[in-house]
Amino acid sequence: MPAKLLLLAGVALLLGGCASQNGEDLLGSGPLPTPSCDTTRVTYAATVAPLLLQNCGSCHANGAAAGGVGLGAYTQTKAAATSGRLLGSVDHAPGYSPMPKGGAQLSACDRAKLRKWVAAGAPNN
Ligand code: HEC
């Protein structure tokens, strides 16, 4: 009887060891099964401004304001956001000019980040 108990304890230890190793693998540097979109830390300064500058800046920043829309400064971008034009254009919604003009639509992840920022009230954070 004591021998059986010892055996059970040993098996439990082995299984426990395997489980925690697998857990470590998931948190390690291995490839994730699906591409992830991290929208947990979306801010104007770190997320929105660089994204717009890179994808839209040639026509909407640094002195350019195609269609009367500037996206190089916070107040301009907030105006485009609160009017609905920012999301309408990047989502290619009916009634808006699809953006970026002449280019591929922004990735679903980038659009999710913009959507999250606008939903938060387009804060200057
Ligand atoms: C190659 C130049 C170019 C790029 C790049 C570009 N735009 Fe535009 N955008 C325009 C022009 C020109 C207009 C004026 C409307 C038109 O001609 O379609 C415009 C209009 C807009 C409007 C007003 C649309 C409406 O229907 O009221 C918004 C908002 C906008 N752009 C946002 C963006 C955003 C966001 C990006 C980047 C993801 C972007 N644009 C990239 C040229 C550009």
Automatic annotation (TrEMBL):
> Which top-rank group of organisms is this from?
Bacteria
| Molecular function GO terms recorded | electron transfer activity; heme binding; metal ion binding
Keywords recorded for this protein, A-Z: Heme, Iron, Metal-binding, Signal
Gene3D superfamilies under this entry? Cytochrome c-like domain (1.10.760.10)
User: Cytochrome c domain: which residues?
Assistant: 18-122
KW Metal-binding (keyword) present: yes
Q: Which InterPro entries match?
A: Cyt_c-like_dom, Cyt_c-like_dom_sf
According to the record, the signal peptide region is 1-23
Q: What is this protein called?
A: Cytochrome c domain-containing protein
Write down the species.
Answer: Hymenobacter setariae
- Taxonomic lineage: Bacteria, Pseudomonadati, Bacteroidota, Cytophagia, Cytophagales
